Amino acid sequence: MNQRSLGGIGRAFSNPNFRVYTAGSAVSLIGTWLQKTAVGWTAWELTHDPAWVGIVVSADLVTTVLSSPYAGVIADRQTSLRLLTILQSLCLLQAALLAILSFLGLMTVELLVVLTLLLGIIMGFNQPIRQSLINQLVRKEDVAPAVAMTSVIYNVARVIGPSIAGLVIHFAGAGAAFALNALSFVAMIVAIRYVTIAPAPAMVRGRVLQDIFAGYRYALSHRGIMPLLVTSLVSAVLLRPVTEMLPAYVGEVFKGGAGDLGLLMTAHGAGATLFGLAQAWRGASRGLVRLTTATLLFGPFTMVAFGATDTLWFAAVSIFAMGAVMTMRGTSTQTLIQNNVDPTMRGRVLSLYSMIFNVGPAAGSLMLGVVSSWAGLHIPLYVAAGLGLFVWLWMLRREPELVRVLEDEPAAAAQAEADEAQAAAVRQKAAE
Fold first, then answer.
1. What architecture is domain 4-431?
2. pTM to 2 decimals?
């Protein structure tokens, strides 16, 4: 099978740095999702309280908020592969500590919260730096499929990681799941050693806080990026917490165990993977604004379908659709941001996006968990779905302007640049 038959997927993987980086990232992400599933299940087993599950999965809220802005400035000043190696090593140590405490029978829900807070600090730095690397790993014209494939790898990990977690937890306990995650970071650390990148565009440096606020002012005043960040925040708070709270739904609504949790997480990841691959194969930015708007409509309906059933197979179908919707929205949003952001602001804008990506579900999970502890798991789900429809209407009104700002104008600028390059080549040939 040649590169042309693979469409945008082949173009993305024709970049050697992207191939190496993605291989290491895939192994690491599988371990991350394995641990994520084990953490949620451990919280449920320790407490049997959905409020505590919400607290544990949202424990990195404060630390991510505090560390992400500084990570954005660092990413804009210098993209440091050495720093990324250090961060991955710290993730390894955190997972190892979880494993040791579990094996020794010393784990408590309070320690689980503390270690999740620690991971939040690390990931607050880790994710913006990793996202800002994409433009340095591939050619400019391959950014869209590279972003989509990054999302696919993330969601393939959703399929494999929870599936492995269900088996590992059942036969060897959560401690073994944490230990496997610790080992997975070795692959990422090794891959980074084989990646070489060109320096990022230099930014005008000021004081750190000034640089942070300059990046945020830029993002919130941008006619196209600001609405994308708003819809990302709402989607993260209202839609994604359902998957974060799956341990509570499995235990209370479906009366299931770790295997059933693995099934639902696998269904979610499968939907995300299939539709992410379709976007990567397409490999184009045209039409992503309208796709983003459509996902804001269909997302709430998948939530209602999931909340309306106590049948596991129908819940799996609903979660499959939810995974597809979430991936299409997230991939489209990040591609549009990557294509339109000022290169000297990229790290700070992506740090804001990363903070939304992490803090939104954490805040939503906390609210959903607390409210569900006295109102049940269904009513908060329906309320969130209803609020999501208002956001769809808000986005629908702005869609024509966003198409012009995010798709038409960049396409016209790119065509003008290509025409000028072609004219310059003709002039040079004539001079020779």
1. Up-down Bundle (1.20)
2. 0.76
